[in-house]
Design a protein that fits this description.
- By secondary structure, the chain is of the alpha/beta class.
- It folds into 2 domains: about 50 residues, no CATH class; about 190 residues, Alpha/beta knot (3-Layer(aba) Sandwich), CATH 3.40.1280.10.
- About 30% of the residues lie in helices and about 25% in strands.
- The chain is built from 6 helices and 15 strands.
- The chain has an 8-stranded mixed β-sheet, covered by helices on one side. Strands 1-5-4 form a 3-stranded antiparallel β-sheet. A two-stranded antiparallel ribbon has the order 2-3.
- The longest helix has 18 residues.
Amino acid sequence: MIILNLINLKRLVLNIIKTKSNVLIWYNKKRFHRGINTFYSELYGCQVIAKAFIFSYSNPFVREFILRALKGKTLELNLNNLIEGRIDLVCRCISNSLFVSNNVRRDVVIHIVLEGSGDPPRTVSFFGETIKRLGLDEKSIAIILKNALYIGKGLKLGEERDVQDGVKISKKSFEALIRERKNIYYLHTKGKDLREVKFSKDYVFVFGDYIGMPRKTESLLDRLGAKRISLGEKMYFASHCITIVNYELDRLITVQ
């Protein structure tokens, strides 16, 4: 039990929010919302008896996903035909990477490298730590992608622009993106079983779309020291692979 005045209570709440914890607050014995933190107030001298039990959805490591969408359109999206360029697949990958039930994974970043018709490449990046106003459904995500491509018109190579909180667009190729990163893992049916891999801090997972990864790209990944990992002998959709990887890493963090 800790006795706090109102100023110190405010500081404590701000510190808790900075830890990315989900917080459940009772103030004056009224429940406000979110997480597992409990506060009971006493009205004597504006003092508060606080009891904190913090649970966070965030893991100690940052997860980055990179999806290479070889047919993903780079100028205009038809919201009534998301199958064109397989934007429907792209939207599912974004949703599966960032969302858990009633929450957002704050420790996840996903980059979508669009290389289809228009003015490729375009990389749209979603940052779970700062993302806002992102719906679960494909149409809502496609609207953000459409807006990103509109904002990204006329980008020069290497240039980047903000789209909204937690979303950026850049004119950056897949090759340039992976050259900037370390601890890269490439999903491949002949790779090492994911459950046998010892992951280090801040890992990056690379996925191909329904077309797969070109051989030249696989050779580049090998030269950069990317480790091939496998989810088994069966081939899964990219969006399913992201869900499985998130599950396995959640499981690993829980065990640790």
